[in-house]
Amino acid sequence: MTRKTYLLEGLCCPNCAAEIDEKVKRLPKARQVSVDFQNTRLTLEYEGDESALRETIAGIVRSVDEDIIVKAR
């Protein structure tokens, strides 16, 4: 299992943070998901390919707010 943190540049709404958190938790290989609104970070533990996961995370974030930019930390 790998732990990864993503910066969510442009995250400015606690409701968006909660929605991203909820959607990422639904991913079958995601474990221990946490979206920190104040620090604009998404942290999760996961099993599987990191590159595929990053694209999936970016898609989830875009579905919530297309102005948020996902950056690997």
How many domains is the backbone divided into? 1
Using DSSP, what is the number of strands?
A: 4
Q: Roughly how many Å is the radius of gyration?
A: 11 Å
Query: The biggest beta sheet, please?
Result: 4 strands, antiparallel
The CATH architecture can be given as 2-Layer Sandwich
Overall average pLDDT = 93
Strand content: 25-35%
Alpha-beta classification: alpha+beta
- Globally, the shape reads globular
Give the distance, in angstroms, between the N- and C-terminal Cα atoms: 17 Å
Query: Which topology does CATH recognise?
Result: Alpha-Beta Plaits
Low-confidence stretches: none
Architecture overview:
The chain has 73 residues and is an alpha+beta fold. The chain is 37% helix and 34% strand. It contains 2 helices and 4 strands; from the N terminus they run E-H-E-E-H-E. It has helices spanning 14-25, 50-64; strands at 2-9, 30-36, 41-46, 69-72. It has a 4-stranded antiparallel β-sheet. Strand 2 and strand 3 form a beta hairpin. Helix 1 (14-25) crosses helix 2. The protein is globular and about 30 Å long. It starts with a strand and ends with a strand.
Strand and helix layout:
Layout: E1 2-9, H1 14-25, E2 30-36, E3 41-46, H2 50-64, E4 69-72
Antiparallel strand pairs: 1-3, 1-4, 2-3
